[in-house]
Write a structure and sequence with these properties.
The protein is mainly alpha-helical. The protein has four helices and no strands.
Length: 135
């Protein structure tokens, strides 16, 4: 009996020891090593596959909805932004030129020099539309 108990104790720790039990041992070893799958494992894998497919389909639907929102709402806004920026660039350049003149004007005001010493206006300044006088 002790030899049988020792073989059972050894079989609990060594999966290959189950091969001594014939077909039943081969079945246990194949289950332990993954060569043979039980029905609940197969069902679980099938459910996992179906869940992954459903998740992929939801992700694709979400991606398509986001692409539609991009085309319908975001692209016109970006287009308007670019158009507005192009229209504002000359105005911003003129403001920058005027800001460069501010230190010179401060110096003139401090020293009390006359306006004749100011640099001539640039071509951009002379291209402005004439002011309208209200009477």
């Amino acid at each position: 009996m002790t030899a049988h108990a020792e073989s059972l104790a050894q079989a609990q720790f060594d999966p290959t020891a189950y091969l001594n039990f014939g077909v039943l041992g081969l079945l246990v070893v194949s289950l332990l090593t993954g060569w043979l799958w039980t029905r609940p494992s197969v069902d679980r894998l099938t459910e996992e596959k179906q869940r992954a497919i459903a998740e992929k389909d939801r992700a694709e639907a979400q991606r398509d909805a986001m692409a539609q929102v991009l085309q319908d709402r975001l692209l016109p806004v970006v287009s308007d932004f670019i158009t507005t920026t192009k229209a504002l660039m000359p105005i911003l350049q003129e403001i920058q030129q005027l800001q460069q003149m501010v230190p010179l004007l401060h110096e003139i005001a401090r020293t009390g020099e006359h306006v004749e010493h100011l640099p001539a206006p640039t071509a951009r300044s002379s291209a402005r539309s004439p002011r309208r006088h209200t009477t």
